[in-house]
Amino acid sequence: MSVGLQRLRDDAARLRQGALDKGEDPAPVDAAVALDERRRRLLGESDGLKAERNAVSKQVGEAIKAGADPRGPEAAALRERSTVMGARIEALDAELATIEADLGELLLRIPNPADPDVPVGGEEDSVIVRTWGDPTPHVRPDGSEVRPHWEAGEALGMLALDAGAKVTGSGFPIYRGAGAALQRALIDFMIGIHTREHGMTEIWPPALVNTASARGTGQLPDKEDLMYVVTRDELYLVPTAEVPVTNIHRDEIVEAAAMPIRYVAYSPCFRREAGAAGKDTRGILRVHQFDKVEMVCFERPADSNATLEWLTARAEVVLQRLGLPYRVKLMATGDMGFVQAKKYDLEVWAPGVERWLEVSSVSNFRDYQARRMNIRWRPEPGAKPEILHTLNGSGLALARTVAAILEVYQRADGSLRIPEALRAHMGMESIPA
Q1: d(Cα 419, Cα 401) in Å, to the nearest integer?
Q2: Considering 158, 241, 310, 321, which has the largest number of Cβ atoms within 10 A of its Cβ?
Q3: How far is the C-alpha of 315 from the C-alpha of 71, rounded, in Å?
Q4: Is the peptide bond before 396 cis (omega within 30 degrees of 0)?
Q5: CA 318, CA 200: separation in Å to the nearest integer?
Q6: With bands split at pLDDT 50, 70 and 90, how would you rate the model's confidence at 376?
Q7: Which of 416, 402, 414, 429 lies closest to 159 in space, CA to CA?
Q8: H/E run at residue 6
Q9: pLDDT of residue 365
Q10: Could you please report the per-residue DSSP string of 59-116?
């Protein structure tokens, strides 16, 4: 379950308003409250009947011990009474099992309420909290215009979008030559920063996950239509490394000495982008397969606010080293997703398309994911385990980062400067026109 029963009982009004603030249906909250009340009534009745049946069994034993005929009317009446109660208890237990299963499903459909400092509203209500660098103008001083990344990339032999569409379909780009080298260089560059400088442990996760893993991080049931499914084996292609990496500690108790746990992982990512037809279909801004470096943290609840800021700054380090102007946005409730309590988006400026492109989302889920996955930590030896907090952030997503590099570092003659931080990784300083 995502929401604890005690929280449902104590804070139903906030859960209901939290759903409305995110543009979600609050009906699961009301249905869960009603089902929980019925569950508690039936539990009370069942427990009462079990206690009464035990008392009747004791009476039968005492009556026989006192000399009563085991087949006499008194013992028979008591046994009949016990049988009737047993049938009712069996029916109650069966109903309770159904209710608990239904209640568990309802709790999974209650979104995580946003933190109090998150602005309420849609995309237009998100707040820019800081910027870095000066956005490159679309028109150069000589009057020439920066070409969009798909034109620049294909002219340089770095992108083969038509070949990708032929091999698989639209939204599955092929990178070739220096384009493929740029992908590898970015992955190595990012992983190196996060492991050597930020102290994260590298993970190389599976590209497929089972149903329990997809449910644990909140992809199911909320984002089921956005995932690619391997139906024969009941597996899902990962939409992000967040899913397999966070599930590493599912059903575990983490000792305090091991906290915090901070991972970084590269993975290919697969998203159906259902409902996104016609949006950003040119180039590599919205694709079905892309590469991403993901940061995942398991934290003490008292530390998760500070870790969100730290994790955001780690993604900013990558953008600064690449020399890409960016802005950080605190996302409003209606634009932050089902499972996040607070989220920052990092957007880079792309002068060719004259747009800010999201290359990282950094989120605090508080105990929402960990409760679904039953991930707990023990504050001290012998202490009762408690639910920990999970966070993650892109560090970074490659497709739009590549698009920004192709536009920011593009020269008027069509050649491309390689960002200084990547030159050693690629073994070149520029790509000639």
Answers
A1: 12
A2: 241
A3: 80
A4: yes
A5: 14
A6: very high
A7: 402
A8: helix 5-10
A9: 98
A10: HHHHHHHTT--TTSHHHHHHHHHHHHHHHHHHHHHHHHHHHHHHHHHHHHTSPPPPPT
